[in-house]
Amino acid sequence: MHDPEMTPHPTMRILLIGEYSNVHATLAKGLRNLGHDVTVASNGDFWKNYPRDIDLARKSGKWGGLSLMARLAKCLPQWRGYDLVQLINPMFVELRAERIFPLYDYLKRHNRCVVLGAFGMDSYWVQTCVEQKPLRYSDFNIGEELRQNEDALRERNDWLGTAKERLNRHIAESCDGIVAGLYEYWVCYHPAFPQKTVYIPYPIEMPEASVPHYSGKLHLFIGINASRSAYKGTDIMLAAAEEVAQRHPEDMELQIARSVPFAQYQYMMDSSDAILDQLYSYTPSMNSLLAMSKGIICIGGGEPEHYTLLEEQQLRPIINVEPNHESVVNALEDLLAHPEQITRLKKESIDYVRRHHEFITVARRYEDFYTTLLSQS
């Protein structure tokens, strides 16, 4: 009998512009696996230096912007005739928002469909958290109270009532589709654009790994970006972890990576049983998912709403914490008091990522979404 699932899609020419935490590079790999012609143009996400086909990194100094604009001018004639162009963010290249307007309009004019990624910081995310507050907590609010840390204030000033906000609105209103990568971003875009917003989980390339052995001593890992510690909640998580480690030196060992390159970060993380990450999130991010794919338990964002959106009825591998010191301490104490659940949570973490985030499975969801858009164009 003919299985409609096995019907191959026509080959698409796809251009992915910009990068966040390896999302586009991994998606490109999945789409190529399905037979599509994919080009990634990005700055590699700054120092993380993820792979790309066209390098759009901006050199430092006053000539950096001019040099990047010259490279973009060379690229533009080749960036025509694609079936699909996907932008990682409204600020998809390292230029001022005013300079991105004409670049976006050119891409929209000369390609069949343009998709905006709702994958990170933008004006819809900031405004929704500051004004509507649909989330109990976020980068910008705890309940009805707005967070006043330096990063939150800077992002609000950057994205509200500025050229960046105008650019974001222009792209969101005129593009053909919007993909949200986390529950949080779906909550911001779906109410505003219900007809063209879809949720597709982030893609992860699964490692060849069995469930890691648990030695009986909990190896806990936390990565700290010194410049964004308060904003991401790692300051609270670190203080909680240090308190519990001092109380249980025989049962727990804490490893801290402070602003290290990605390769070193991964190497340090690989020997861990659990990772502390993203205190203010409802959903695991790329870092957490990468850890979970290796059987490392994520202590961070795993709210019920995100499982509902994923339609996940069984697996609950994430140890969800509230954004405060006491909640993190209690979660760690509970894990140490019940070591028998550690091996199960490790296995469930791998199963969860394989079920929802495996990069070819995710690429198929993008393929279906792109095909639907192209049939309407």
Write the H/E string, N to C.
Answer: EHEEHEHEHEEHHEHEEHHEHEHEHEHHH
Strand content: 15-25%
Rg from C-alpha positions?
Answer: 21 Å
Shape: globular
Structure description:
There is one protein chain. The protein has 15 helices and 14 strands. With 377 residues, the protein is of the alpha/beta class. The strands form 3 sheets. A 7-stranded parallel beta sheet has the order 3-2-1-4-5-8-9. A 5-stranded parallel beta sheet has the order 11-10-12-13-14, with helices on both faces. Strands 6-7 form a two-stranded antiparallel ribbon.
What does this entry show, briefly?
With 377 residues, the chain is α/β, with parallel strands linked by helices.
